[in-house]
# Entry
Amino acid sequence: MPKETLLPILFHLFRQHGYDGVSVSKISAATKLGKASLYHHFPGGKAEMLTATLSYSQQWFEENILQVLASEGAALDRFQQMCDRLSELYSAGEQPCLLATLTVGQAHSVFHESVKRRLEGFLAAIAHVLSEAGLPSALAQQRAEDAIIALQGALILSRGLDSSAPFIREMAQLTEKLCEKISG
Amino acid sequence: MPKETLLPILFHLFRQHGYDGVSVSKISAATKLGKASLYHHFPGGKAEMLTATLSYSQQWFEENILQVLASEGAALDRFQQMCDRLSELYSAGEQPCLLATLTVGQAHSVFHESVKRRLEGFLAAIAHVLSEAGLPSALAQQRAEDAIIALQGALILSRGLDSSAPFIREMAQLTEKLCEKISG
DNA sequence: GTCTATATTAAGATAGAC
DNA sequence: GTCTATCTTAATATAGAC
# Structure
């Protein structure tokens, strides 16, 4: 079994159950691979499985979110595309964020630096678009933080209420919030 | 050992590590009580320990947040007090939200209804203040959702970045965001 | 109410055959 | 690369003494 089919399964497990909530036995059941096979692919065990999952998720993020933010076109269009991709990534708020699940438990101490770097990269990418559009860099930075806060908060609320509505509404408002008074 | 001293320890453990990340052995170490003693207090095991922790947290929430929101005084003052209590509860963004940690893993399936009820109660309390202040109820509901989204998102971002700054900034802005154009 | 001791099941991980 | 079988440790949980 190639890693390209393995990693989406790992991604799904880790984001849904968190690092502490996933056992190698569960992974074995979900992938229909024996434990020994899993350890063949990932000699470092569960930690390496999450590391590989983070790389996989990072790659998706670069190819879908960061690439869109760095593309040509108006800021408004780029943010709109970003929202569409985010909605896809999180299944309109039904699926949790992998990075957010890693902020608690054992993962927090072990993978904290990776999470921090990922968030900072996302923040910088959003702020860069806003700076390009003419916003002062301090304000651009603040608004980028507000965007990620809105995204993460909407994911928690939607999942907690078991309703996509808050996430969908937040994604619909996000672009205009980001672009507000840009050319004012 | 009385439960009044036990529950704050449980609360701290569960919010930091999530349900799956806490073992009875860890609880035993943290409380300096033998496992058998813990099962004496909570015959239902770890699940009952979390149930009791949720009740404890609910009580704190009623006495501190809901009470303040239901008090006399201007909406602006009540929200300001709410923000102060929230900042205390989450140690300015250093501590995770218990309810948020329960949206993943095993806890999600078992405790989802409790989490949902708690969020709905919080939403209703905020929306009620806004309605009293003259906001149409649909808008009041939306703004209440935005407040919880801001709170939860700020907690994730602050913890992910290992910085209180986003949480502190968000709490500082929250009251005016909630009261915007109330008497316009 | 708390303890020691223990039963039972599941977890993380490896050896070695195919 | 995948399997069966196995090891070791940790998990949940209980029995019974004090």
Notes: The interface with chain B takes residues 15-18, 20-21, 96-97, 99-101, 103-106, 108, 112, 115-116, 119-120, 142, 145, 148-154, 156-157, 159-162, 166, 169-170 of chain A (CB under 8 Å).
